[in-house]
Each structure stands twice: as structure tokens, then as C-alpha cells.
Amino acid sequence: MRVLQIGAGPTGVSVFRQLYPILSSQNEVLDYVIADENEPGSGLAFGSTGNSHILNLPATTMSLDPNNPLEFYNWRARSENIWNDGTYDERVWGEFPPRRLFGKYVSSTLQTLLDTRENAIFIKRKVQAISELKGPNKFLVHYEGGQNELFDKVILCIGHARKKPLFDPNLSNYFCSPYELSHLPSDASVGIIGSRLTAIDAALSLEDSGHKGSIYFVSRSGALPKVFDENKKPYSKDLFIEKLLNLEYPTLNDIFVMYKEEIKSVMGLNEDSVEKLLFCVNSKETFEKELELLGKQTDWQNVLLSSYDVVDNLWEKLSNLDKELFLEKYYGLWMTFLAAYPKSSALRIKNMMDSGQLSLIGEVKSVTQNGKTFSIFSSDKREVTVDYIVDARGVGYSEDDMRCSLLLSSLLDNEMISVNEYGGIKVNTASYEAVTRFGIVKNFHVIGDLTKGEFLSTTDVGRCVSHSVKMASYHKDSIY
Questions:
Q1: DSSP letters of 396-424?
Q2: Considering the entire predicted model, what is its pTM?
Q3: What total number of domains does the chain contain?
């Protein structure tokens, strides 16, 4: 069997780790190829070159080994000869080290696996298109440069898809990526579209570069992510998780009520107090209040984080109407609570706000280009003019977003994938094989963040590892 895995980021390495031994035991001849246009571990999330883009979860919870949550933490201690090139600062030994260190760990883990798996190789090559040959049940893969190869199985784990650009990507004052800001003039005024983690990254990058001009977070919600409390009290989650899993046909309101009751119980608060505690951080004043509560009233974070592993189970049980309601009304707010960021980064954002350099603009209605500048309009008829726009809206899940990728566009054209009505690519939830109007595309698998519509919880490393284990288990129990 010839297998092509596209992607060598955290999900890709986890898939390879789990799946290769199973396929090797099932096939007398196995040729396993991992292709990625980037170096392993250096994709969108972990390819940053600076030290300011730090992990948003503690190093002690980041691991590609489902049986050893401390693998990354221990690798850092024993493998300094691999990663320490003299460019890291003191943050590298902290609980939230630079994300690029985790990328090094991903790359090192892949190399260790390849060293012991003689029938597997990594190639640095871009896959541009794939077509299905239904007669011989194979896939014809087209690489950049014109080379073609045949494979029996293809696994797509390319991580995130980027959002479709809001403006012409060739504009000199419009940055499609928040990670490529080195040529931005230090005295320019900058509008950062978005106010969650990607926007935080962009602002910190500008500060690192010595930027002096005004900076604006610009979004519809105007909501910043919650700040991760590094010193939360111990929490016994088993009973709450059991209650969630025992919900047979829950409504969205049933789930909300259960979470609220658990938070009330854990924190000893009444209904009104919980409502006041779980406020939206959408102004400088609420941001300061959020920082004041750290270490005092943040046990609600235990409830949310401990139950993240069962979110896909709850999502599967919801009705279509409740799924639509959640995505339309609550998803953005949910992500500000769940995708929190460390106190050290939050304090830097606060300092930028205190100095008057950084402002938060919510309820934004439109952003328009006016010659060499951009105008930002909010619902209160406020207009702000900026010299540059940085697109920090995060990742894309719509067909328009996927069409910006040559590979995903070709898969859509060849009807090898279809768009899930809730975003991302439609897959069979057991085998992770793509699903189109013709049914399951046998032996063509999609795993990772592009399956958001099926599972909802696909953005963090822990969930991607869990999905890799689940997909490998399916192969172990199936005959291919």
C-alpha cells in the first residue's frame, strides 16, 4: 500500500505516530510518504520566528503523546542541544514558552519516528491537486513543478485554512497575515481586524518591532479573549463530565444550564453573581476588571477547560437548529472564554492600552479602502482612518476561504470533498473519510481543524491528538 499524508504539523505527526504501526501490520508492503511545503512543525501556528508568540496553554498540557501529557515538557529539558540556537530568551523555560519551541518539538518527534520506520519518508514538496481514479481505486497526486504520483490512500491534515482576503492581497498597505509585519513603517497607524488570539499576536509583534504609531483592534464583538489563570485550584471533573455525557437529547439551553449550575456549585455563587462574573471583556475597563479577578474568581475556567474533551460528543447530539443558533449567536463569545491567553501577554496588551497606543473598537460595521488609507466605521457612526490594515480574523472554514488554497480548490472541483453546512469539510465521523453528494470517498481522509463542522472542537493540539487516536482505532478494527 502506498500512503500519502499531506501535512507535518502537530496533527500530521500525531496521525503518523498512531496510524503507521497499524498499517504496517496490515500490509506486507507499505510505502508511507509525508509531504509538506514547509519544514515539519513550522506551519501557521508554530512557525513564528519571535519569542512573543507564546503558547496559550501550559507546557505541561501540550503533548503529541496521548499517554504522556509531559512529553513536550520533558523533551524541552533533555533536548536543549537540539533547540537552543541562542535566539530564545528566559521565557523558553517558563510555563508558556515561545510557540516556535513547540514547533521544534513537533519536528524532532517526527524525525525520531522516521528514524525507526524504514518504510516512511518526509518530502518537502507542495501538493497542488489530487484526482480520484475510480477504476483502479487510486489517487493521482500532482506536485508543484509538474511531478505526478499514484497512491492507494491519502490523508489530508494540513491544519488551518486561511480566510479569504478582504482586500487585494497585492496592496502594499494590506497585510493578509499578522505574522509578516516586518516592513510596516513604525510611525504608521494600524487597524488590526479581529480582537482574539490572532489579533493579540499581531499587536505583540508590532510592539516587539518598536512600533510607535496608533493601533486599533477592530471587530464586531469588540471582545478580547479571557486571561488564563495559571494558579487555579484543583477541580474534580469526573462527576460533571459524567452528567454531560448522560444527556441523551440535550438542547443548547440544557447544556448552558448545566454549565451554569456547575460553575455556581464550584464557586459558591448565586445566579446573579455568575452572570456578573462571566462578563464580556469588551472595553479597557472590563479588561482591567478581568485582570483584577485573576487568582480570586476564575474557577469557572476549570469547568470549561476540563469538559473540552467532550464538546464534540455534545455537538453531535444537538439539533440542526441549535447548532445554527450556537454558531450564529454564541460561538464567538465561547471562543473568547475557551481560547484564553496567558497573563504575561495580557499585561503587555494592558500597558499598550494604558499608554494610549492601543484602542479597542467594537460593533464595527465596515472597513473600506480610500486611496492610500482605510476607514473603519462602527455602529455609533464613529469613523477611524488608518494607514495600514492587518487581517487577524483567524482561520477560514467557508468554501470561499478554501478556494484560496490550490489544493482545496482542486478537491472541491473534483468533488473529492464537500463543505459541511457548519463549516469546514464534511467527513464520516468514524473513519474521517471525506463525504460528498456521491457518498464516502474511500481511502481519502481529512483530519484536523478543517473538520470543525463535524466536531466543533478541533483547534487545539490535545483534540487533534484525540482525533488521531480515534482514526487509528478505526483502521485497527477495519480491514482495508
A1: E-SHHHHTTSHHHHHHHHTTS--B-TTSS
A2: 0.93
A3: 3
